[in-house]
Amino acid sequence: LWYGAYLGKLGRFAEALAQLNVGLTHDPGSMPLNHELTSIHTYARNYEAAEAAARKLVRLQPREPSSYLALCRTLLARQKLDDAKSACDEALRQDKSISGQALFASVLAAQGKLGEAKAIARGVESKIRNVSILCDLYHRIGETDRAVALVEKAYAEGDSTIQLIGHSSRFDGVRPHPSV
Of 13, 38, 62, 97, which is most buried with the most CB atoms under 10 A? Predict the structure, then answer.
């Protein structure tokens, strides 16, 4: 698991998937392996496979909010916004996590509900550690300069979540910025 996840963060997706699939042959119901499989497919922008993996994750762990958040991220990437909102609603019904709230705000922003998304963004920023989630959210609400500032701060602080900046779609909005 850890090596597959590491390879995925480096953008070596084929190798990462091979590692995860070896693990899944031994334990097909493994929540961590299936979760990472969904993430790697998402990073690789193989959204159809990511959605299939996320739906399997939900079937395997229907009482696990992170399963629904993985599905939401995938559906958001595929612009299936109503389905993404439903998946996020279910995750938040089970657990009002800060990451879930930020992802919900990203869905609202994608639906054009910027006022609601901005209000949530202000409430979660100081409570969330994953800069990629905030970066995506701030870009979606039209505050790309704020997203860039968060990336710069994360880099200065040695935040490991910016390792994904080269390939995660969460950073698409800031990647063209000259300072990133």
Answer: 38
Answer yes or no: are the C-beta atoms of 88 and 72 closer than 8 Å: yes
Rounded Cα–Cα distance for residues 91 and 169 (Å)? 21
Rounded to whole angstroms, the Cα distance separating 130 from 147 reads 12
| 133, 134, 139, 145 alpha-carbon torsion, rounded to 10° | -140
Cα separation of 28 and 38, whole Å? 13
Alpha-carbon distances of 3 from 17, 23, 26, 74, 145, rounded to whole Å: 10, 11, 16, 22, 34
For residue 67, the tally of other CB atoms under 10 A from its CB is 26
Q: What is the DSSP letter of 177?
A: S
Per-10-residue mean pLDDT of the chain, 180 residues long, equals 84 93 93 93 93 96 95 95 98 95 96 96 88 88 90 87 74 73
Contact between 106 and 76 (Cβ < 8 Å): yes
Q: Determine contact, residues 70/64, Cβ cutoff 8 Å.
A: no
User: What gap in Å lies between CA 160 and CA 146, rounded to an integer?
Assistant: 19
pTM of the model: 0.88
Q: Is the sign of the CA dihedral 92, 96, 99, 102 positive or negative?
A: positive
* Angle in degrees, 0-180, between the axes of helices 65-77 and 31-43, rounded to the nearest 10: 20
DSSP assigned state of 12? -
